[in-house]
Design brief:
The chain is mainly β. It has no helices and 15 strands.
Amino acid sequence: MPILGSKGAAAAKGFGLTSAGKAPVALDYLVLAGGGGSGKGGGGAGGHRTSFPGGTKIEVAGGKSVPITVGDGGGTIPTTSTTSAPSGQNSVFETITSAGGGAGSGDQVPAPNKPGGQGGSGGGGASGPGVSGGQGNVPPVSPPQGNNGGNGSGGGGLYSAAGGGGGGAGTAGGNAQQVYNSSIGGTGGNGAANSITGASVTRGGGGGGGGCPAGSTGGQPGPGGGGRGGYSSTVTGTAGTDGQGGGAGAAYTGTTSAGGSGTVILRAPSTATVTVSPGTNTVSTSPGPDGSAKIATFTVTGTLTVED
């Protein structure tokens, strides 16, 4: 079944959600997946899909309950591991699935020069000549749910190696740079700003790439929850921010960083009654350009119930 709906584009009515005598409630959505874990390239941000503002809402019939899936970020691995770092997990609301961010590539996974992982946004390529970043917007939707990761750079002579930055919801990850006797990890891609809650928040930043040796610089984090890249054996990368789907900052030695978890945010008319479970998820009332609205925010997997 094709994935329907995307940022600012048409979405479908919820399947099986009509109920006699109960009017449906039209919901705007922001569905953000978990960010990818890092290798020596930064992790890609989780896929970012939204109908707000101006897109077609998804209708849920009054009296019905809808499962909501919130994707976790990809976990950590030793930098010497022969397996890839984990990608982020998908987030789902009805017909809308946002793909987890691709993992940053490591030098040993399973052989040197493996590209960054693909996903909502792609992971950064590991250090090495011609190591490409992973592809974003996989599976493809329109408008795109994310961007490609940046390329790694190779060492040679007095030039050192570095990893590319993970892609972000707003822009691609930056390529690593080689400078005399050092390197600069690629910058994580920018996240995307959205005001579905009534305030503008940037989410889905990519993780910075790793740099080596001492005197090098780790890649800067992508705005919107991306982690900072580490360098040599002295500075570790930082994790992506939970709830913002940020990609993990890369490491060069030791253990890699984890991606940030995603979120699902639903916006209902102020006249609607909506409840959420479990209790860690919340419902609030927020002013907006079309008057006050009910905002259901999911930070963990749960259930939305719409009353008539």
